[in-house]
Structures are given as structure tokens and as C-alpha cells.
Prior knowledge:
The chain has helices spanning about 10-25, 75-85, 115-120, 135-145; strands at about 1-5, 35, 40-50, 60-65, 65-70, 100-110, 155-165, 170-175.
Amino acid sequence: xxxxxRSAIPSLFETVAVKWLARxxxxxxxxxxxxxxxxxxxxxxxxxxxxxxxxxxxxxxxAGGFPRAYDPAKSRDYKDYVRLAAREYAPAxxxxxxxxxxxxxxxxxxxxxxxxxxxxxxxxxxxxxxxPDADNYxxxxxxxxxxxxxxxxxxxxxxxxxxxxxxKPRIEVKIKQLQ
Length: 179
């Protein structure tokens, strides 16, 4: 269900992210599952397997005459799944201070793609330019990690997000403490 992994295909995003990670200082309790990457710094890195779900628009109701906003069930359930996956990699104490995050959402390759087109999508030559937006995947992950990895998602001051096609849908998350 949960595994650590690294993409084998270098891209502009990964080049920028590695440079960004290299210039960051990082300290985190040793109990966490971390990997040394990015020029000597350490990174909390985990993968959430399964089809990624973007943060949906809030729903509204008027229970008892008062308006109330709430997450759609699909978004709420996916956040619970991300929390469960992240707990295995959570530090003993919640991270404080400014943080950076890199999120890669791998969506399923559409069944309508030919074998040739699917192979090109797998190599990153065809990118998913359809909805949902990449930042909505980031919002859902940030919300889910509140209280598991960090105190509040407002601590995230640097963020990189991308979406790609893959035959193995998943979300890969990398977190780095900046000070």
C-alpha cells in the first residue's frame, strides 16, 4: 500500500527540485523514514498508491438555519488515506518552522490511448493537461498532513507540484524543513 520510490526519468521539475532541496538546511528526528538527497540534506519521502484525488470544492448546507461548509466525501476519504500513509513516516514531534514540499501526482493513463501513445505518456512525452489542476492535488495533500507531519499547512512556504500519466497511479510526496 505504501512504498518509497524515485522516478527514473529526470525532468526539468526534478532538476529544479533537487537544486531547491540542496540549498535547504534540514534537521528532523531520527525516528522518521528519511532519505539523503539533494546535496547532503535529508527528506521525508513517501508514496501513496492508488488513483490520486484532487481537493474538491467545498459543499454547503444550512443545517439548523446556519450555513456550514464541508469537504466532499471523496476528498475527505482521500485525505484520510493520505494521513494513514504518512503516519508511517511521521516524526516523533510535529515539524515546526518553514517547510518545502514537492508533490508528483501520477494519474492513470487513459484507456483511450493507443499502445504507442500510452508508452509516450509513460515516458513523460505526453502530459495530462486536463482537469483537475495540479495545485488541487497539492491542497489535498497539504490539508491531510496537518497534525501528522506539521502543525499547520501554512508552514509550507516552498511548493513544487506536477502531474503525470502512469500505469501505476500514485502520489509521491517529499517534505523538507527549510530552517
